[in-house]
Amino acid sequence: MEVKIGSSVLELVQGDITEQDTGAIVNAANRALLGGGGVDGAIHRAAGPELLDECRTLGGCDTGDAVITRGYKLKARYVIHTVGPVYRGANPSTERLLESAYRRSLEVARAKGIRSLAFPSISTGAYGYPLEEAAPVALRTVIKFLRAHPEIERVRFVLYSPADLRAFEKALG
Ligand code: AR6
């Protein structure tokens, strides 16, 4: 599924984020930035050990913030590491932190002149954020940013399972 937001394109696809050829891919990391499971583990495996070496120099990342590294063996030139909130029930501050993780990732991309990026669904794996609650927050934040910053030409959500893709498609609809 693909929609135009002004002159930019917002895409929803099922797939593996490590295979994306966008300028940057976004990692759903943790505050230590030293790797982990899920999408974080997959990105570190695909990028190779130099990614961890660079992450070690960064001194971590706050929840809701984002930092950038090179992509090493990935097709994407950069990895933007962001830290989503751990879900402990619906509440406005958790939602704001999820919003912030997407917005800061986009701001970091824009500051580097990156024109296309791919996001996983942040916080909806190990961090337990229900997909049906997270998808509208993710989409709304990205759409708002694209309306204000058409220099980001393409944002692709790469959803790992068919059910995840369906939840995002439903939210976009
Ligand atoms: N491509 C796209 N999406 C993926 C991939 C992949 N290769 N692999 C998993 N997903 P999670 P979180 C989906 O747990 O909830 C890590 O250990 C997955 O199905 O990766 O933000 C970090 O180090 C789910 O929908 O991230 C942190 O400690 C989504 O990616 C913690 O997990 C996010 O799941 C972060 O938890």
Write a brief structural summary.
The protein is an alpha/beta fold. 39% of the residues lie in helices and 21% in strands.
Describe the protein.
By secondary structure, the protein is α/β, with parallel strands linked by helices. The protein has one domain: Leucine Aminopeptidase, subunit E, domain 1 (3-Layer(aba) Sandwich), CATH 3.40.220. It has 5 helices and 7 strands. The chain has a 7-stranded mixed beta sheet with strand order 1-2-7-6-3-5-4, with helices on both faces. α3 crosses α4 and α4 (131-148) crosses α5 (162-172). It binds ligand AR6. Ligand AR6 is lined by residues 16-18, 28-30, 36-40, 42, 84, 120-127, 158, 160, 164. The site of ligand AR6 has 24 residues, from α1.
Question: Topology, pairings included?
Answer:
Blueprint: E1 2-5, E2 8-14, E3 24-28, H1 38-47, H2 49-56, E4 66-70, E5 78-82, H3 92-111, E6 116-119, H4 131-148, E7 154-159, H5 162-172
Parallel strand pairs: 2-7, 3-5, 3-6, 6-7
Antiparallel strand pairs: 1-2, 4-5
The protein binds ligand AR6.
Annotation keywords:
globular, Leucine Aminopeptidase, subunit E, domain 1, about 20% strand, about 170 residues, binds ligand AR6, alpha/beta, seven-stranded mixed β-sheet
CATH topology: Leucine Aminopeptidase, subunit E, domain 1
Report the span from N to C terminus: 10 Å
Q: What is the helix fraction of residues, given as a range?
A: 25-40%
* Secondary-structure element pattern, one letter each: EEEHHEEHEHEH
Tally of separate helices: 5
State the major sheet: 7 strands, mixed
Bound chemical compounds: ligand AR6
Give the rounded overall mean pLDDT: 98
By oligomeric state, this entry counts as: single chain
Radius of gyration (Å): 14 Å
Structural class: alpha/beta
For the largest sheet, list the strands in their spatial order.
1-2-7-6-3-5-4
